[in-house]
Structures are given as structure tokens and as C-alpha cells.
User: Fold ABC-F family ATP-binding cassette domain-containing protein from Schaalia naturae.
Amino acid sequence: MTPPLPAPPASTAPFLRASGLSRSFGERRVLTDVAFTVHAGARAGLIGQNGSGKSTLLRILAGIDRADAGTVEVPAGARIGLLRQDFPLDAAASLREVLHEAQAPQFLARARVEQAGDALALDPDDPERIRELDEAVAAAERTGAWTAESRAEAAVAGLGLASVDPGRAVETLSGGQRARLMLAGLLLARPDILLLDEPTNHLDDDAADFLHRVLAGWHGPVIAASHDRAFLDDIATEILDLDPVPASLAPGGLDEDAPATEVRGLTRTRGRYSDHVLQRLGEREAWERRYAAEQEELRRLRARGRDSHLVGHSGAAPRTEGRAARKFYADRNARVVRRRVDDAARRLEALEGAQVRRPPRELVFGGLDVAGTPRRAGAGLALREAGVTGRLAPVTLDAGPGDQVLVEGPNGSGKSTLLAILAGHAAPTSGAADVRGRVGLLSQDPAPRDPSLAVEEVYRHAVGDARADAVALPAFGLLDPRDLARPVGVLSTGQLRRLELAIILADPPEILALDEPTNHLSLDLATALESLLPGYPGIVVVASHDRWLRRRWQGQVLSLAPVTG
Assistant:
């Protein structure tokens, strides 16, 4: 087991506070009145549907993006570090240079100690030089200057980069290696506040355990946006959920006087992700029950307002025909009617002003068989010692319709390479691979598309007009209807993967190959997808690091050996 990085010193950032953050892109509102505080030592898991604004919120907190309204408050001088899903690294820089740059303040602090020491040696009794040395030593201790090399070695080993040549350029690294290098550099920089956007997407079990140990000892606030359920259960001390809940139904609402019509921009739950899921289900059910009951009461009050304009029998004459009697009964009728109408109107006005909003329509995955089932019988996989030099050790695999195969193994063992062979995107350099049937491959990186095309246009171009007419994109329940006319260039990575999944399922393949299917997908969709895979009539091959998925897997398991040589 790789030892964890030494814990950073006590944080100079005891909190991070967001107040009333809102952000729109054009006419689309992404964040609405988001407010929360995360204190030092707390580890907040940030969750929400694809496109709910998780990455946008992290960029605002890091100062990379600006909110339309609201403020972010941190103590003066606090350093904020953000792990981004894109990789803003110098392509020509080497792995060694990236890590050295991350620790540059620590090496500078050590150099200042040496300079201050040399200066003091020239005049040992100078109080100003003594003070400068004391300050330099304190700064070096705060930054971890004395342990910089050992921490770098621990991070490289813990994140599975020890086998990578330190002189290799970033542009030659795989996407997973670049992601782990970004994470290593961020941890070595030791910011006071740590913001992580999908930190486990490219981590195997050992690397995920290493990150868990590092975060467990982090002194400053940590916010991690993640779709990794096992990771959230392991590290989170609280959950920040961007999916909406009315303020009146959410525990610890915005304030006690907040109107019931207000929908919170964020729901906060203390404890683990599993605890949050149960609470969230209860809140949604309560919301739907209250909305239904209020709508029924509104209908009743409106009907009462219409029907309460007469008292008694409208056609019955008073018992005496005298003019005074007729006036008496008419006045009485008017007073009673007015009281009833006024009472109904007051109750209607009060309820209309305080009624809870309609629960937003939740995306519900239509299933793997929206467009039917695989058409071809006799599909199968037969791999015999199939391997790729330097990328995939020889493997043997047999699978037929109805079989589910989980491919697991450490980073660099060739999981994606194996799926590429099945899809015909790569060829084995040894052994043989017999693939019978069409393969639909959901890659980790969405296929490049013209960013100016609308989502529906991309779908139609990919599947053809006839199939797009027969199986409309909304039928899958993967994308919000309001997003269908938006250009794909503004979609989140999770939304792009949802689109790719719909394109694959529009003509169900005999072999469904999914490369890290839970990466970037919302927790609800990941759970739904896992539950439906066992019923797919074709062959399912899943390559995954997801510990939650693997713990519940019931099909075959193909464990890949690390590639050597």
C-alpha cells in the first residue's frame, strides 16, 4: 500500500462560503440562488443531474468564472485549487516539469531559508536578519518545503504514474494519465481549499484508496463533484445536491420565513451519500403529495367562488309577498353570499400566494429497449490469447447473447484497448478475435461533433432520417426537451455521453460495449443503467473502475493483468 501524502498544515482557510450564487448562459439558468458554507476539515460531495451546473459552480468558487449574482467568501490569502475535467497543461512539458511547477512555491520557500541563513551568517546579531530567517523557516514549514521530494514520490506512486517515464511530454500521455498527473500536481501544490471535478474518473482501486487517504487528512475545506457513489460514501461528510427541492420541504431551509414558492438552489445533507439518497426520496414524495393536495384545494376553492353567489332556492319566493319581506330576504341573501365569496377569495389568495411549485419533471431513462431489441441471432465473442504489444496482455473470452462481462484491472491494463478490438477500432498483434454481430461502443470520450449543430440535428445525422423519425430522441429520456435545440458545443460532458448512448441504442447492437459507463453520468442514470444491463438480450461488455458497480455485478468477470515489457 502506497503511504499517503503527509497532511498539509492547519489550514489558513477555515471556511468557504457561497451566498446567493446564480448563473445563466443565454436564456438557460444553470444556478439559482445557491448558498452554503463548507468549513475546514469538511468534505462535501457535490451532486446533481447532468447539466445541473456542478462544473460551473466549481469554476465560480475557484474564480475562473463569474456569477451573475451572489458572492464567494474565503479568508484573505487563502489559496484555492481546482481539478478540472479538461486538462489545461502545457502539451510540451514533461511529467517531471509539471510536478516541479506544482511545487515551485515550496522550492522557493526552501531557497529563501537558505538565503536568509546566508545573510544571517554575515551578521549573526542583526535582529532584522534573525526575524527574516524565522519568517522564512515558518513559511517553508507551512508549504511543506522540507518534504517536497518525498511527497512527490508518494503522489506519483499512489496515482499509478510510477511506471511513466518522468521525461515524457504531456501530449504523449493517455487521457487517464493526464488526469492523474493533474490530480498529482494539485495535491502537491497543497491549496488551502480543494475543489475536485470528477476526481475518480481515471483512478483504479489503488489510486482511489490513495486519494481517499489524502482527503481524510486534508485540513481545509474540500468540495468534490462526483458521480462515483462508492467514493462519495467513503469520503463525504456532507452532500450538496443541485437538484431542486422547495425551501419549505428541505431541512434547514434558506430561512424560516422563506416562501413556499421558492425552490432552493441547493440541498444540503449531513452524512454519507447513501443517507442522502433515502432523505431525498422522502423529500420528493412529500413535495409531490403536497403539490397534488394544494392543486385539489385550489380547484375546490375556485369552484366554491363560482357557486357561492346564491343562498337557498333561487326560484323560491319569500313566504309573504310584501315589499318589505322581499327586500329583507334579498338583503340577507346578499350578505351571506358576500361573506362566503369573500371567505373563499381570501383562502384562494392565500393558497395561491404560498403554494408549492410543481415538482420539475425528472428525466426517466426509457430503457435499453426503447428502439427494440438486437435483430441478429448468433452473435458471439471468441477471443483466443488476443493481445496488443505494450497495451493488452493476451486474453481469452467467450460470450453469447444474454451474457454480461465485466472487464476490470488496474490503470494501463488495456481495458479500453480490449473494447476497441471488439469494436473494430484496433487489431490484436497476437492471438485471434472473432466478433460476430454489430458492436455499439460507448467510449470514455464522446465522439467529436460539429459544436454548432443542435442536439437533435446531431442525433438525426448519426442515426439517419428514417430511424430518427421512428425513434425520436426524447423517447430515451436521456436529455431534457429544452436541450434538444441547443448546440452540442454548450453541453456538459455528461450530456454528451447521454447523447452518444441514445445514438447507440437507436439501433440496438448485438454487442453493447460500455467503457466506464458511470463516468460523467448522473447518479440516477448510472443506477438505472446498471439495473437494466442484466436484461439486455445481446452481449454486454462493461469496462469499469466503479467499485459500486463491481460490488453488485452478477455476470462474468474478466480480470486483466498489468502490461509488462
In short: DSSP finds 16 helices and 19 strands in the chain. The domain at 15-244 is CATH 3.40.50.300 (Rossmann fold).
